[in-house]
Amino acid sequence: MSFFDALMTNSLLLSALLAGLAASIVSGIIGSYVVVKRIVFISGSISHSVLSGIGFCLWLQRSQGITWASPLMGALVAAVLSALIIGWIHLHYRQREDSVIAAIWAIGMAVGILFISQTPGFNVELTNFLIGNILWVSNTDLYILFGLDLVVLVAVLFFHTRFLVICFDEEQAQLQGLPVNFLYILLLILTAISIVLLIEVVGVILVLTMLTVPASIANLLTSRLSHMMSIAVLLSILFCLVGTGAAFHLDWPAGASIALVAGVTYMIALFLFPLTSRPLKLKVKSPALT
Question: CATH number for the domain including 258?
Fold first, then answer.
């Protein structure tokens, strides 16, 4: 049976591709902001801090019998809290920012491991969150994923022009009277939501690949951020489709296959377009910001 034949008959495979589509949209859009703003390290800290929320909710489910404590919701809460803490640190302690962010990265993972160590049973669910298992996505997860997608898209629709300015020149944004601190923290929160979406597809370990690689490849092809976002979304969808198809035929883990396809494509793109990557240009009129 071919991959597309299986797609028509296997509801799990169809759900997996729908999850990949939901993750690809935010991967291309928010990933472009992350690459341009150069907050990949911050995104890495947020992505690993979610382990604390996942571990805590698994502990509540298995040890305390609190069945409504979903690991996905725990990941979302932990990601947003980490984004708020990191944003506050960036705004008030820039001289020690890297060290404190690294500490938050370590604390988040340590707390998660401690709760997991106290959780009875074999944690298959935890393994899926760590290395990704797109075939494990349920209908409830799909509703949550597309709901989070909608939140991100609405926020970007309203704040895109302002995000552009703070990504390129925060000082200019302050001179124009924009609430730079609020916009920066909002961007981190949207990044946190995107990370949770991507964790469903490729897992905690590989989430940075799908957040940054499509946008980085798109940056090799264009110097306009709007074009970069569109290309990155299409690339993310392509990576999910090809990676899932490869996993189906080769019996490989889907998340790792998707990340591998993305990484190899990036290396090929660097070889083919070594001189075309250049700083993106801000093309926006000042009156639109006020």
Answer: 1.10.3470.10
